[in-house]
Specification:
This protein is an alpha+beta fold. The chain contains 11 helices and 15 strands.
Amino acid sequence: MEPSLSFEPPNTKLFLRYSSFTHPKSSHTKLIETHWFNHKISMFLSLQDKHKDKTKEDILSPFSASLPPYLFFYLVRTSLHHLLKAEFLNEYVGKGGLFVLSQTSIESGNVACILPNGHLIFNIDDETYKQLGLEGSHARFPLKNGDRHVIDIDMKSKRFVPGEKLYDRVLWCLNERVSPGTFYITHIGDEGNITEIDFQRIFSAKELGSIESIQKIAMNRKVDFFRDIPIPDITSFVSKSKMPDKQQTEDDIQTFSADFYEWSGFLHCGLLEKLCKKNDEFLSSFELSPDLLCTPKSGFMVSYEGLIPPSVVNVVVDTLRVFVSKRDFDWGLLTVWGFDDAPLSWGTCEHGFLQSGENNYTFVVLPNDQYCFFSAGGNYDSFS
């Protein structure tokens, strides 16, 4: 007799919000600004008939001119204690706007990050936790082979200055007990733009010599144009949301939104054009929901990858709102992917990795300043 095996599927989550950017209780700004670590953003705009005779450059130029002109981040190989130097803390941590994330697998290693509010977060295994001797708490999502712990240190605290016990202890731990690592780093200035970090001025020649590498990496823009792909009828969706029957409206919104989110997945995977090829015998027979009322249209997508701060996402959302409100485009789509191995997703929500580390979100920017917001989280994500 064969043994009976039971495997529960991952408890992945997809949340939906439908609101208006101008509503006083809209949470869109908070959702953007507290999703700390974004590694990719993609913007899609559906073209109108008036764009048919325009060149790709003519279509793209007005949109590109509204986006941040130069996006970059740093990839630094160093011991983390260098980033706790008093001068660095005063210049970049104390003033806010610093984002740091270790390039480590949270499933098998120790992860550290610095938030723009000045908090230093560790998500570490049990052995490292005992070696450091710093105060922390049990992680919500353990490793398969043991417990994990979370340490949260407020580096803006008056206790976290040279000469104070907490500062000196943390600095010693990072220098003596923690191996060097690779870190994604970016810094935001007062106006929300990415600013350069002056490593040469902050660190002495000897200290720079002990930092293994500092790379400044530009985030290259990728542009994709799509012709005659199935694009949903957003106008129909918006009109349905205004129906007098409230229950019918909620059902319509949920059904259409789920189908639309599935469609966006095919878009980002580059599969919509393949779905149109009916003569490919090896292609999946999957078909889009007829409720989407798709028609063949064209569109374009602009993508960036790197360590992308929330302020850049805010600019993109505002840009989409402007172009959609002016009726330059039918509607806009923005998808943001978080780092799979980030120790946090939104705010203080603990994040881990079990089969997948989703912490992604999507804005559908609709006419009349309405929007639909999707947030997707894996089994090891506490956001709700």
